[in-house]
Amino acid sequence: MNELTKAEEQVMHYLWELKKAFLKEIVEKFPEPRPAYTTISTVVRVLVKKGFIKFNTFGKIRQYYPSISKEHYFKRHMNSMIANFFEGSKSKFAHFFTEDEDLNLTQLEEMKQLIEHKIKRLKENNE
Q1: Which residues is 22 bridged to in the sheet?
Q2: How many Cα atoms occupy the beta-carbon half-sphere of 72 within 13 Å?
Q3: What's the pLDDT tens digit per position in 103-125?
Q4: For 61, which DSSP code?
């Protein structure tokens, strides 16, 4: 599955939020000044062709819905970023965040708790 352009990603975010929508409803989600209806229509057609969106037909009207969840896309996107920028190492990715000057103690503690919880679950599953 291909990566999304910024415009495609924006349409997908609206469609993930709406769950199912007609083109008019997707266009209405855009802030003013909205892109042209035909522009959004073209982006939606491309997303259908790429396999990110499917649709049901009601006469001449199509109701669109995502064929991939936001979580699945995000996970794939993050894995791709880790592969491209961190040599595929999730440890290097985590190290990048621990070195981030903007993280405060509370945020680091939250990350630590998430990691400890995951370790505990993995250990329980292996026993």
Answers
A1: 63
A2: 8
A3: 888 988 888 898 899 889 888 88
A4: E
Element (H, E) at 53: strand 53-58
What predicted TM-score, i.e. pTM, was given to this entire model? 0.74
Q: CB count, 10 Å around CB of 115?
A: 11
Cis bond leading into 66, ω under 30°? no
Distance separating alpha carbons of residues 58 and 56, to the nearest angstrom: 7
Residue 65: partners with Cβ closer than 8 Å, 6 or more residues away: 15, 19, 20, 21, 53, 54, 55, 56
Distance CA 75, CA 55 (A): 24
Distance CA 69, CA 94 (A): 24
The answer to whether the beta carbons of residues 20 and 26 sit under 8 Å apart is no
